Amino acid sequence: MKKLMKTAVMVAGLVLTVYSASYAATPLSLNGNSYEIVMFCTNDAGDYCSQGDIKNDAFRFEDDEFIVDSFDGGVLGVGGSGEFQEIGIYFTASYEVVSEELVDKYTFDVIGFNFIDFIIIGQMNISYYELGIGGYDKQDEAKAFFFGSKKINN
Known about the structure:
The protein is mainly beta. Helix content is 15%, strand content 52%. Strands 3-2-1-8-7-6-5-4 form an 8-stranded antiparallel sheet, with no helix packed on it. It is globular, with a radius of gyration of 20 Å. The N and C termini lie far apart (47 Å).
């Protein structure tokens, strides 16, 4: 029995070592991935985020472009504009969108970490603006903390 247990532990160790080594060799990259996220809002930011809310959304990272899914289609179906940068496991992203009615505008500034290519965590600052006489005036600003997992089927 001792011999069987020792063999099982050695095989398990070998499998984990080979799997871990091969996985560690693959670079972490957000590009081409989508993540389902859950966020906790600490303040209000227009209709998007209310203090104490837990909100579901999705982030897409495509060819250096960052997209917040709930705003995909933004102005007249065109959508917002965003970009992201990666430095190892650390990433930053920004996104700006104007509503279809051209009355509301949102900006997102995201700071996060990409763990094992399947999980992202971080915080984002969300600013909400309303159209005024001289342009868009800032109305609300919220901080949200998020956790996301990679969508298997993009």
